């Protein structure tokens, strides 16, 4: 098994591999200029792929009164085919960061909230996780949970909402824990303004897409963790990442 220093280096290498343009400029600033009936649904898929990212980083719940706070990020390597909103604006890879806080609840449940105001987009969201059949802290024993998440999105040119559900499994010692997830995202985008087709104002598109995730969490300190994962949704690859403090 690689050393903690090596695992941490691999994690930060992944972060550095994400193009800087994903965190600079206005990724969604071309929506009003380029959205039309043909591009609305592909754009909805891409936005939903970001919103559903990094909704989990372990199959183990926090436990009652546990607490977790950190930064999360979701990134997609390229826009979907037909997403002319992003393609015509010159966007290649794109992503979103947010702040997330979690708390352990009774009955093997966790609650979490997250949000960000970034590049003209304001996102607020949260969800619940339920561990089953029970939390297992034995070495190399699996943990399972169901994770549900929902978001509301406001932009000057569109609004959106997203709902997602994932089945998650993890196994391994806290110092290095692989995790896997499978689920879906349902996303709806409603147009506020379109220069190409003014009749689109008030209309929307809805998508339902599957998601697969495989990643790992590293804990270099008892209370500090880092996580990174590869995701695949609606035919596109992406990455989840994050760091936080967990008690």
Care to describe what's here?
There is one protein chain. It contains 4 helices and 10 strands. The protein is mainly beta. It has a 10-stranded antiparallel beta barrel with strand order 1-2-3-4-5-6-7-8-9-10. The longest helix is centred in the N-terminal third of the chain and has 15 residues. It is elongated, with a radius of gyration of 18 Å.
Structural class: mainly beta
* Total E-strand runs: 10
Secondary structure tally, helices? 4
Report the uncertain regions.
none
Distance between the termini: 25 Å
Cα-atom radius of gyration: 18 Å
Strand content: over 45%
Q: Helicity, in percent?
A: 10-25%
Basic shape: elongated
What is the string of SSEs from the N terminus onward?
Answer: HHHEHEEEEEEEEE
In short:
The protein has 247 residues and is mainly beta. It has 4 helices and 10 strands. A 10-stranded antiparallel beta barrel has the order 1-2-3-4-5-6-7-8-9-10.
From the structure above, extract its key features.
single chain, mainly beta, ten-stranded antiparallel beta barrel, 4 helices, 10 strands, 15% helix
Secondary structure blueprint with pairings:
Layout: H1 4-17, H2 31-34, H3 37-51, E1 67-76, H4 84-87, E2 94-105, E3 109-118, E4 121-132, E5 142-155, E6 158-171, E7 176-191, E8 204-218, E9 224-233, E10 236-246
């Amino acid at each position: 098994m690689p050393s903690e220093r090596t695992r941490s280096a691999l994690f930060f290498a992944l972060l550095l591999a994400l193009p800087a343009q994903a965190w600079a400029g206005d990724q969604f600033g071309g929506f009003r200029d380029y959205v039309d009936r043909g591009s609305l649904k592909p754009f909805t898929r891409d936005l939903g792929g970001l919103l559903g990212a990094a909704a989990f980083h372990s199959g183990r719940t926090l436990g009652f009164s546990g607490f977790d706070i950190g930064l999360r990020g979701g990134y997609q390597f390229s826009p979907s085919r037909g997403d002319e909103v992003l393609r015509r604006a010159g966007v290649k890879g794109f992503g979103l960061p947010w702040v997330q806080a979690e708390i352990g609840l009774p009955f093997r449940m966790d609650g979490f909230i997250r949000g960000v105001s970034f590049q003209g987009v304001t996102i607020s969201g949260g969800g619940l996780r339920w561990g089953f059949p029970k939390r297992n802290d034995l070495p190399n024993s699996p943990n399972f949970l169901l994770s549900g998440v929902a978001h509301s999105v406001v932009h000057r040119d569109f609004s959106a909402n997203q709902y997602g559900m994932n089945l998650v499994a993890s196994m391994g010692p806290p110092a290095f824990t692989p995790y896997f997830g499978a689920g879906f995202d349902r996303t709806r985008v409603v147009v506020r303004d379109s220069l190409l087709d003014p009749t689109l104002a008030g209309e929307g598109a809805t998508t339902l897409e599957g998601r697969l995730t495989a990643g790992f969490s590293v804990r270099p300190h008892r209370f500090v963790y880092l996580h990174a994962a590869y995701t695949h949704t609606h035919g596109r690859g992406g990455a989840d990442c994050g760091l936080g403090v967990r008690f």
